[in-house]
């Protein structure tokens, strides 16, 4: 009997068939009104980059591969396997293809109906190194419907995975995949029928994309005729995904509901900001920025991405919360290209959201024609110019005389200020249109990290690192457990402030510390924030701060040290890690 939540919401990342059953398919309750695709990954071969990989010793930490899947609002994750030339994947995933509506229990959906379900199985391969750093290895869209024409309802597919970014034409390895329908089909289709269907879909998609390209070129010509200087503005109509495919930017956005995982738009902004930030890698020198806008599944599975990935996700979540949100493309200081998010309030308020930090800024345009009676305050936001903005339904090019953000007027209905693209044209290449090469959005998954366990682990490791560091300096270390515990409210308050902008509970914290520090003693505390859970890396960063180093290396009379760690988990494997080091000692003057 399936719990209702389990039935309707996406499974957690670790929930997959093999977790509950041995690799041999024994018994499981299959709902008779549903059709399932049983997808098995039976090993890999030709991962040549790992040809020289030594066999890991038992218990030794080694680099691993993890395979993440998304299909029709369901997500799965394989067991991690050691990186090798022939990785030992042995996983099975039960994907629900179709569920009949109530009352249709007598007639099971047939192969012809399932042929019209054109959602692919999106497979993302992640490598995790010995330090826990993740790398996107491959992203692949599996056409599963070949199984509908397989003789005995079973088909084996050799899936050749290609690399990502600059290596999107290079093979990284082959996965052996076995597909099977459950319950078995009474009647299979002929391969001619399935191949004809695939060809028709490809043709339809290609034609829509061609027509959109023709329209986009025409729109760009018109945009340049308004003002020749428009050619230097950052107007981005297409962007390359991790597989090197050029896609309209609007297709990277979709209203995304976080179900019960996030409660407010500001909490969504906090979640996006604690996903790791990493610029797309570029091979060779030069100032050129490698462009790679990731599909949402690849971004979430890696748990890090560039500013575009963060902005696209935040915009999608804000749209899901019912706000009018757009991604802005422009520059920061020194002309560095950047993307951020903007929301338009019903009262005319324009708010900028920085997806990397979670900060929000109210935009008040300066009228350049006003006499400079009063020196205008410098805007707080870091943005300098804006070329265009877009969401899943609109694309607008900035055609105001200046593209400087501070003088921009965000009256998006005024076509003399913002040149719109046809909504119909955008709809033709962005879901929920029909056939499309745009991957469906996966749902967010709940965190699998236990906050208390993770906090404790990091804290224990930091105590060891501090004691070792002080020992090297010839200092002994005495920990004050009571003082360590008293630091908790401060860490909770810092996270609350980052999420809501509201500070609370400082009076109680100050009072407790005053009571814990005797007369004639000095207290010093240093809070710091990370988005990863590697204690050694965090400690090395802390030592680079003179304030923190002063506490950790504190000398004096009756020195007592304290450290408190608080991990706040967010959806996926995102987390905010707050650490506070403190010391108290007798003041000798």
Topology, please?
Elements (H helix, E strand, L loop, with lengths): L3 H5 L8 H4 L13 E12 L18 E8 L2 E4 L3 E2 L7 E10 L11 H5 L5 E8 L5 E9 L11 E9 L8 E12 L8 H36 L11 E3 L5 E3 L16 H10 L1 E2 L18 H7 L1 E2 L1 H14 L3 E8 L5 E8 L5 E4 L6 E4 L21 E6 L4 E4 L19 E3 L2 H7 L21 H22 L8 H6 L1 H13 L5 H11 L4 E10 L4 H9 L2 H7 L4 E13 L5 E12 L3
Parallel strand pairs: 12-13
Antiparallel strand pairs: 1-5, 1-9, 2-3, 2-4, 2-6, 6-7, 8-9, 10-11, 14-15, 14-18, 15-16, 16-17, 18-19, 19-20, 21-23, 22-23
Helix pairs in contact: 4-8, 5-7
**Major sheet:** 7 strands, antiparallel
Number of helices: 14
Q: What structural category characterises the helix and strand content?
A: alpha+beta
> Which regions are unreliable across 5 or more consecutive residues at pLDDT < 50?
1-23, 102-106
Supply Rg. Answer: 27 Å
Overall CATH architecture of the largest domain:
Roll
Head-to-tail CA distance between termini: 72 Å
**Strand element count:** 23
Beta-strand content bin: 25-35%
- Relative helix content: 25-40%
What strand order characterises the main sheet?
17-16-15-14-18-19-20
The outline comes out as: globular
Name of the CATH class of the largest domain: Alpha Beta
Q: Which fold does the CATH topology of the largest domain refer to? A: C8orf32 fold
What count of domains describes the coordinates? Answer: 3
> How would you state the average pLDDT, rounded?
88
Pfam families: CEP76-C2, CEP76_C, CEPT76_peptidase
Domain Centrosomal protein of 76 kDa C-terminal: 449-586
Function: Centrosomal protein involved in regulation of centriole duplication. Required to limit centriole duplication to once per cell cycle by preventing centriole reduplication.
Subcellular location: Cytoplasm, Cytoskeleton, Microtubule organizing center, Centrosome, Centriole
């Amino acid at each position: 009997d399936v719990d209702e939540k389990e039935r309707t919401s996406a499974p957690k990342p670790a929930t997959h068939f093999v977790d509950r059953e041995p690799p041999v398919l024994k018994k499981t309750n299959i709902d008779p009104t549903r059709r399932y695709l049983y997808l098995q990954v039976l090993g890999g071969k030709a991962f040549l980059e790992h040809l020289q990989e030594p066999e890991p010793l038992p218990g030794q930490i080694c680099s691993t591969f993890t395979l993440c899947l998304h299909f029709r609002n369901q997500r799965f994750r394989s067991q991690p396997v050691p990186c090798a030339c022939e990785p030992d994947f042995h996983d099975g995933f039960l994907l629900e293809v179709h569920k009949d509506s109530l009352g249709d229990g007598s007639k099971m959906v047939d192969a012809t109906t399932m042929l019209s379900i054109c959602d692919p199985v999106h497979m993302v391969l992640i490598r995790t190194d010995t330090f826990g750093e993740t790398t996107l290895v491959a992203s692949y869209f599996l056409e599963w419907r070949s199984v509908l024409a397989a003789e005995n309802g079973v088909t084996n597919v050799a899936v050749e995975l290609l690399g990502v970014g600059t290596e999107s034409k290079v093979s990284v390895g082959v996965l052996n995949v076995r597909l099977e329908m459950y319950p078995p089909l009474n009647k299979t289709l002929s391969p001619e029928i399935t191949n004809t269907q695939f060809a028709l879909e490809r043709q339809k998609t290609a034609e829509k994309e061609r027509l959109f390209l023709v329209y986009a070129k025409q729109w760009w010509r018109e945009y340049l005729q308004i003002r020749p200087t428009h050619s230097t503005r950052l107007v981005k109509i297409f962007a390359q995904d991790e597989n090197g495919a050029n896609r309209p930017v609007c297709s990277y956005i979709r209203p995304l509901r976080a179900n019960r995982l996030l409660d407010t738009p500001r909490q969504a902004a906090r979640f996006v900001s604690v996903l790791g930030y990493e610029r797309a890698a570029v091979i060779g020198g030069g100032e050129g920025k490698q462009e790679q806008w990731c599909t949402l599944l690849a971004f979430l599975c890696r748990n890090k991405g560039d500013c575009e990935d963060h902005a696209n996700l935040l915009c999608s979540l804000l749209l899901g919360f019912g706000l009018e949100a757009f991604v802005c493309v422009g520059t920061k200081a020194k002309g560095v290209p950047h993307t951020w998010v903007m929301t338009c309030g019903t009262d005319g308020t324009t708010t900028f959201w920085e997806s990397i930090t979670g900060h929000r800024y109210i935009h008040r345009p300066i009228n350049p024609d006003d006499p400079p009676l009063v020196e205008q305050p410098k805007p707080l936001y870091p943005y300098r110019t804006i070329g265009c903005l877009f969401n899943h339904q609109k694309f607008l090019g900035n055609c105001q005389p200046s593209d400087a953000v501070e003088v921009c007027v965000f009256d998006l209905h005024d076509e003399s200020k913002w040149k719109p693209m046809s909504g119909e044209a955008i709809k033709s290449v962005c879901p929920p249109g029909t056939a499309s090469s745009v991957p469906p959005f996966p749902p967010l998954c709940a965190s699998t990290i236990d906050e208390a366990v993770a906090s404790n682990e990091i804290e224990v490791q930091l105590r060891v690192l501090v004691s070792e560091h002080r020992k090297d300096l010839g200092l002994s270390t005495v920990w004050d457990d009571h003082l360590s515990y008293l630091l908790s409210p401060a860490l909770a308050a810092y996270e609350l402030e980052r999420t809501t902008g509201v500070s609370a509970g400082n009076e109680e914290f100050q009072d407790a510390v005053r009571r814990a520090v005797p007369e004639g003693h000095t207290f010093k505390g240093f809070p710091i924030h990370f988005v990863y859970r590697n204690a050694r890396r965090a400690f090395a960063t802390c030592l680079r701060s003179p304030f923190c180093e002063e506490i950790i290396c504190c000398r004096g009379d009756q020195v007592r040290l304290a450290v408190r760690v608080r991990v706040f988990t967010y959806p996926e494997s995102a987390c905010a890690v707050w650490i506070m080091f403190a010391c108290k000692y007798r003041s000798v003057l």
